[in-house]
Specification:
Elements: H1 2-6, H2 11-20, H3 27-53, E1 59-69, E2 72-80, E3 86-92, H4 97-111, E4 116-118, H5 123-132, E5 138-139, H6 146-150, H7 153-162, H8 168-185
Parallel strand pairs: 1-4, 4-5
Antiparallel strand pairs: 1-2, 2-3
Helix pairs in contact: 2-3, 3-8, 4-5
């Protein structure tokens, strides 16, 4: 299951890799394992990480990426910390203030307050941060949000291998599991 999430492999590729190692299973078994145990592993990884790194000195980078589900445009909002690790993923149909407000409150509840919140120049970020009362922490300078823009690359590689998503719930589930497990295997640049 970790191979399927960590590397851009299809279910059948994982089946072939396990068959070479003497484990004879069906690709549907891999899908079932991912669906059943992926969220449990991700929740445990996330819980340990949040307990060990909850800090107010963090710098968050907020950004969204367009994802098509059955030809309809949806938005995957992501919060990335100063080390490039994904803190939170959230799927919405719109990019308005209400969606951004819900996403930021979810991040604040789980990860505490950040010293700086770097965003792009989308107006709904400013409106949401003003409503929460932390507008003074926002930074939306040019090219300041590159860390969040680059954090979408592993997700996009995986999305291409999966041949897109078909439901919003599946995308939300996969994005949260993929982010936690990718963070677990991701090394800092110095290492």
């Amino acid at each position: 299951m970790m191979m399927y999430i960590r590397f851009p492999l299809s279910l059948r590729n994982v089946e072939d890799l396990l068959h070479e190692r003497g484990i004879d299973i069906c690709h549907e078994t891999v899908r079932f394992w991912w669906s059943r145990f992926g969220p449990m592993f991700a929740a445990e990884i996330r819980k340990r990480r949040v307990e060990g790194m909850r800090s107010s000195r963090w710098r968050w980078y907020l950004d969204e990426v367009f994802v098509k589900i059955n030809g309809e445009r949806h938005y995957l909002s992501r919060a990335v910390d100063h080390e490039g690790e994904v803190l939170e993923s959230f799927v919405t149909r719109t990019r308005d203030k209400k969606a951004v407000l819900k996403f930021i409150r979810k991040c604040l509840k789980r990860h505490g307050h950040a010293e700086k919140i770097v965003t792009d120049k989308l107006g709904s970020y400013e409106a949401a941060l003003r409503e929460i009362g932390i507008r003074n922490r926002q930074d939306n300078a040019r090219w300041a949000n590159n860390r969040a823009e680059n954090s979408h690359q592993p997700f996009r590689r995986r999305e291409r291998a999966m041949l897109r998503f078909r439901r919003m719930r599946t995308l939300q589930k996969f994005a949260s599991v993929h982010a936690s497990i990718h963070n677990h295997f991701n090394q800092e640049r110095s290492l």
